[in-house]
């Protein structure tokens, strides 16, 4: 295994692929450098002497500038570099197109719903309209488990603290996300429990659900029932009789919609796991399927590459709005736009937001951007989509599920057990994490720099996606983890 990598010929830094010690000499192409200090895995090494106020180049892109002279062989990190990024910018459209892989014409076994969408799970979901009834839906999930039979995979309750005491956009967010989840194809049946006096009561929520199958979507208002538990259990028992008879049928991969998300990034994220996911994304798009890249703050500094891959000028303009609107959200709340890398990111080798973003957008592969969605919107276009969300793991992944994604691929260099409403597949950036947290990790992308390649592990990931779509449980499902979070931006009454 090589000890370090220079990602792009223009780079003036390399990334350590394993812990390195002072005095070691690295030869990377036509550059040799001797380390003058220890370097941790995932962290950057200066390949040449870099004067103060000089751009640092990684991925062939500028990721910041030096704030002090940096000697060749030394550690390049937060102590000696700083972001170059500023506020709202103007952009021009310079279309770029990249060669794409050939279609593989894959298929999977899914549950075809009446509206033509396809689920990869056949679950019954219990969704509260308001946080006041959270304890009830949690109790219902527990009471309903013995009812699981036939083709039913699980019965899940999804709690949240909202639906009342919200104003404006926050209330709208709650209604849109809940309405979209209620129509999700992974749910063969849904029970919606309302309190009765909340702002987002069932009658208010119904227009956000749209046309629905009353046989499979049921409603109970707790304040109208003498015994709301008994009323809900009667509805669940009826749903079980219907949903348990659903069968999987062969479907083309073009019916798959997969969310792309990362969390707890490290210095290997943009070298292993994210490019592996990007390769998968290109393969699925070539088969007519759909992938969704979210986390707008983690596009800052890498947005031009996405803009230039827009399929036309209209999508380019939507991408510009996506970026600048989110920047304005930060400034409207008196927050610094580019103060993003977390302590865990920095410990893993990420120094600036440009460093993180240029690694994050690797998940999008190289396909053109077919559409851009606002938060709470549903997918309408196949291909690579961009979705407006914050970087928060659960908020962003929930939005991907609500947009219609049947699963989420989650890359991580630090590890996390969380899962959203749909199967959440964890992909480790490094073998240490994959071996240490086998109960969390579904795929080790660290192998891409050890005994394999990005292309080979990307194909393995496509195999895993198809297996998951066919019913194979990911680690988070085996553990019983499932959760949702809705984006809150404003006042709580």
Structural write-up:
With 493 residues, the chain is α/β, with parallel strands linked by helices. The chain is built from 13 helices and 23 strands. Strands 19-20-18-17-21-22-23 form a seven-stranded parallel beta sheet, sandwiched between helices. The chain has a four-stranded antiparallel beta sheet with strand order 1-2-5-8, with no helix packed on it. A four-stranded parallel beta sheet has the order 13-12-14-15, with helices on one face. A hairpin with a 7-residue loop joins strand 1 (4-5) and strand 2 (13-16).
Structural class: alpha/beta
Helix content: 25-40%
Q: Tell me the strand percentage band.
A: 15-25%
> How many strands appear in the DSSP assignment?
23
The chain-level mean pLDDT equals 95
Secondary structure tally, helices: 13
Strand order of the largest sheet: 19-20-18-17-21-22-23
Task: Please outline the major beta sheet.
Answer: 7 strands, parallel
Overall shape: globular
Number of domains: 3
Radius of gyration: 23 Å
Oligomeric state of the chains present here: single chain
Q: In terms of per-residue confidence, which ranges show pLDDT below 50 for 5 or more consecutive residues?
A: none
Straight-line distance between termini: 57 Å
């Amino acid at each position: 295994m090589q000890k370090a990598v220079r990602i792009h010929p223009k780079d003036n830094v390399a990334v350590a692929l394993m812990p390195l010690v002072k005095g070691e000499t690295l030869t990377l192409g036509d550059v040799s450098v001797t380390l003058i200090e220890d370097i941790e895995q995932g962290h950057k090494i200066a390949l040449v002497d870099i004067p103060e106020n000089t751009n640092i180049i990684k991925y062939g892109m500028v990721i910041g500038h030096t704030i002090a002279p940096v000697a060749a062989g030394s550690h390049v990190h937060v102590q000696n570099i700083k972001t170059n990024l500023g506020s709202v910018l103007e952009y021009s459209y310079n279309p770029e197109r990249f060669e794409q892989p050939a279609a593989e014409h894959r298929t999977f076994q899914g549950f075809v719903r009446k509206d033509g969408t396809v689920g990869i799970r056949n679950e019954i979901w219990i969704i509260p309209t308001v946080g006041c009834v959270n304890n009830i839906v949690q109790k219902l999930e527990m009471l309903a488990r013995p009812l699981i039979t036939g083709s039913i995979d699980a019965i899940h309750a999804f709690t949240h603290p909202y639906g009342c005491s919200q104003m404006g956009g926050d209330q709208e967010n709650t209604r849109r996300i809940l309405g979209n989840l209620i129509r999700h194809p992974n749910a063969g049946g849904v029970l919606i429990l309302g309190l009765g006096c909340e702002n987002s009561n069932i009658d208010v929520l119904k227009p956000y659900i749209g046309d629905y199958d009353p046989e499979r979507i049921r409603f109970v208002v707790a304040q109208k029932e003498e015994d709301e538990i008994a009323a809900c259990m009667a509805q669940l028992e009826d749903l079980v009789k219907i949903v348990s008879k659903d069968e999987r049928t062969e479907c083309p991969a073009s019916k798959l919609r997969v969310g792309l998300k990362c969390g707890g990034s490290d210095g290997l994220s943009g070298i292993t796991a994210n490019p592996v996911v990007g390769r998968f994304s290109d393969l699925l798009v070539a088969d007519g399927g759909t992938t969704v890249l979210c986390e707008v703050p983690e596009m800052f500094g890498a947005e031009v590459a996405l803009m230039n891959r827009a399929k036309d000028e209209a999508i380019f303009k939507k991408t510009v709005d996506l970026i600048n609107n989110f920047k304005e959200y930060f400034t409207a709340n008196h927050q610094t736009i580019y103060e993003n890398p977390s302590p865990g990111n920095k410990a893993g080798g990420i120094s600036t937001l440009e460093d993180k973003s240029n690694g994050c957008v690797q998940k999008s592969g190289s396909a053109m951007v077919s559409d851009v969605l606002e938060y709470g919107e549903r997918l309408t276009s196949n291909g690579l989509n961009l979705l407006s969300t914050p970087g928060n793991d659960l908020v962003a992944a929930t939005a991907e599920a609500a947009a219609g994604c049947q699963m989420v691929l989650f890359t991580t260099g630090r590890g996390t057990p969380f899962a959203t409403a749909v199967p959440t597949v964890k992909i480790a950036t490094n073998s240490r994490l994959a071996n240490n947290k086998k109960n969390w990790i579904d795929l080790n992308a660290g192998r891409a720099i050890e005994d394999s390649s990005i292309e080979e592990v990307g194909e393995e990931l496509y195999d895993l996606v198809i297996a998951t779509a066919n019913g194979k449980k990911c680690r988070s499902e085996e553990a019983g983890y499932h959760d949702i979070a809705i984006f809150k931006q404003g006042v709580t009454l």
